[in-house]
Amino acid sequence: MHKTILFDQLTPVALYGKIKEIFPNEITMLFESVVNTSDGNFSFITIGAQERLSYKDKTTSYTDNTGQINIVDENPFTFLKTYYKNIDKASYKAKASELGFSFVDGFIGFIAYDMVKVFEPTLNESMDDLLDPLDTPDLDLVRPKIIIAYSHKSAKLTLILNDEGLALGVDAIEDVLHSSCTPMPLKAVTLEEEGSFSIDEARFKALVDESKENIRSGDIFQILLSNRYTQKGKIDPLSFYRVLRSKNPSPYLFLLDYEDFSICGSSPEVMVRLTEGEILLRPIAGTRKRGKNALRDKELEQETLDDPKECAEHLMLIDLGRNDVGRVAQTGTVKV
User: CB–CB of 258/251 below 8 Å?
Assistant: First the structure.
């Protein structure tokens, strides 16, 4: 079942806030695009988990539509390949064509960095002993009960109900759309202690020196040093997301709100896109702060283009991306 409604009085993030009030116990997700970008027509909100697939401690768990949890004797990627083979692709494409957007059903969520060990088993030896203070799954995907798609160009909102058990919830969403909404205040942050980095400054600088030596020795050709910052406190995920989107709007904003943790972020680039059997990978290298005016922005843009380090990094990322795509693409079809 689906329904399309004119939606020109609220933003997707405002609607998401109301949906959190209607469905406080459901997993909800917001995938938002800023307006006036080539990749920014649709924003999506998902509600609930009709089915769920997760991977943690090298164990794949699948929750079916009855709520039964099954331990699967294969990695989640293999499971998904089998699962999607049973999908009526012609029916799906027909529905997507009718509605005017591609995501009308299917699994959505996050795939963490550590999943690289699944298709690169040689990394297990070096990564298995690493401390994981977050204790979250390496992969957690849900098949939503309700999908809401909003077109920024037509100001129309489409509700897709994949679980008839939430039909009353759809009625509640419609009531919100037809009622006046009061602004949502940002919820205050209560910090419990000072934040900290996982690696202190002296050790981090030593790692930089070690990395340079490894590069000179030819032991590595790509390395990215990072330093996790942790700040404990009481933080409302949606309020945090709203501040992030105001400071860093982009074509790819996301908020994934699970039972006991949330993930949010803002990205300007396509990580990977698959459309009708064609893979697109568009890496971006080099960043600069925004200038105070358009002239300063232009100067910083030229500064980035003239920076040998940024140019070298960009070429390296393109080369690495070409290699990654080449692993799964048909021979001779990869183009830069």
Answer: no
